[in-house]
Amino acid sequence: MNAPGEMARAAIRQRHAEVVAIRRAIHRHPELGYEEHETANLVRRVLKEHGIQAEAGVLPTSVIGRLGQGSPCIALRADMDGLTLQEVNQVEYCSEVKGVMHACGHDAHVAMLLGAAMALVDMGFRPQGSVLLLFQPAEESPKSGAQPLIDSGLLTTNKVDEIYALHLWPSLPKGLLGFREGPLLASSDGLKIVVHGVGGHCGEPHNAVDAIAVAAHIVVALQSLVARQTDPLKPIVLHIGTVAGGSRRSIVASSVVMTGTVRALDEQARVRVLKQSRQLTTQIAEGFGGSVEFEVDPTQPVTVNNIGCARRLASVADQPIELPAPVLVAEDFGRYLRQVPGAMGLLGCGEEGLSRGLHTATFDFDEDVLAVGTEILVKLVLDFFSAEMQPARLVGTSR
Ligand SMILES: [Zn+2]
Ligand SMILES: [Zn+2]
Q: For 376-393, how does the pLDDT look when each residue is reduced to its tens digit (9 = 90+)?
């Protein structure tokens, strides 16, 4: 980028220490989903200090900041919640809340979005339209914080044209921006399978229905279902994570409860494997004289980046890298992308020799990455408004 790019960089440099301080303040006081009261207060305070409008939002802990007004409208989203993990890092800004930690980088996401807002204000940026700053609660929660915001009509009332988010990504080297056109992250569905048999004495198996034996057949059959009944070019993970049943070695177990998850990168493949799993599980249980309850908890859809938006994201990054394949983790940002075009970028924060994975008690990152992410967000906004004046620059913006 040219002159506006240089101005952005200078403004971000000026604010870097403040962005780091914000990240550390949030890191010290992590809050779980729907409890992000202090984090939301901090966000409101910073926005107010810089003369940025902040609306209460739909949820007690959501904050919607706004620059400018009307159309066109670009939205930038940061999630705010921490995780139930005890931090083991020995750093000055360590979590002060026992058993809760920002181990997914959401402290960084908030800090970078606030940094971008401050830099835009410092640059004297006046959009011919609006920039929505979405500070969203409860990304980690099965009851996604994105959904109530979407259901409130936020995207439609504001006529959001495009939406973007960054996520810190330790498996990419520090400073790189991983992008992808199309599916980026997987869907996630929770499974609960309850097998009902008939209890009895182990010496008289013919008078009982062994729920453990039935459950074992179901586990093996579900893996065969993935191997033999799904398109190998559309990856699926069907994972059984817990199996619980039985009370004593000489008793035939009357029931078994199993939980698991299904991850997919294609919506049709996802629906199909869930339907087939239910059928197969039911038939196996009935075949042995038992029955089954099969519950699906649809947690997150596939995160599908719009092609034009993914290209815009890559075009504003200094070090974009096209990811060869999607990643089978899930994010609730995919919910926004079902409504409006947009893209999520994965911001590299990995360093050779350091094992600091997401959702681990050792997660941390070099805070220089905050400046890289802030700059990408600022440049997305600048590029969006300049492209609005020259629509031909956008490629493939179909939803
Ligand atoms: Zn996470
Ligand atoms: Zn996350």
A: 999 999 999 996 544 333
